[in-house]
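Format notes (please read before filing issues)

Several people have asked whether sequences and structure tokens are stored in separate files. They are not. Every record keeps both together, in the order shown below: the sequence lines, then the token lines. Line labels are part of the format and must not be stripped during preprocessing.
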Amino acid sequence: MVSEPFAGNQIDRNSPVPLFLQIRQALLADIRSWPDTAAQFPTDLALAQRFSVSKMTVRQAIDDLVEAGLLERHRGRGTFVTDRAFVEQLDPVLDIDQQYAAAGHSQTTRVLSFDRRPMTMREQKLFGAQSDETAVHIRRLRSANGLPLALDERVMPAPIADQANFTADNAVQSIIARLRRAVPLARAKWQMSALLADKDLALNLSIHQGAPVLERAMTYLDPKGAILLTGRSLHRGDLVSCAFELPLDGPEHTGLLEMARGEALN
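Then the structure lines:
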């Protein structure tokens, strides 16, 4: 049985965004809300009629989603939504690469920028630094199966970055894992917020301007309470979920309740 398509049938023929990408964006919303992976996804013909485009245009969008691992085609049966969701399980030993690999996804990270800049007044106050000190800024894009998922922004004092031997090449790896090998980290503060994508974010994440984005702001501290790193990760709201698992009692109860209030170490 073929399930009825969800809302979101409008495409903008005057937009510079190709039609198949607009359709892919609409289908991503369908996939995220799909009620049952056993239910057949709409046929190419049904989708062509829904969006008033050719079947060839629909096939481009569907092929992209199949390649990304979000849809599967079965000869003689049709197209189906997979159960390989993009979920980031936030816990004290967070390893996003391993999580996505375990779910059958191939994650890649690309460093967009790696610069040293004079600290702003805000950064000087945050890090307790002098006016002539510099900070290292890292900006990178994380993708899975070819789909952009999150934009990471990290800032740390240059001496800390040097102590951990950060470079533009190794910044594709786990930033926290490298930092922890070089300096003691005691805890981290997280804050989750919902935002709307601006023009720059929309371009990097391949979403529409004004689309929902999940922001995870973070600050990492040493045992004395000094801030060693700050930043944020901006996740596509149509693809990524962040999950927590907390015990209600037992030896881990106290520490993980701190994480629930936004303080944890990854």
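For reference, the curators noted about this record: Residues 202 and 208 are 6 Å apart (CA to CA). The chain has a mean pLDDT of 83.
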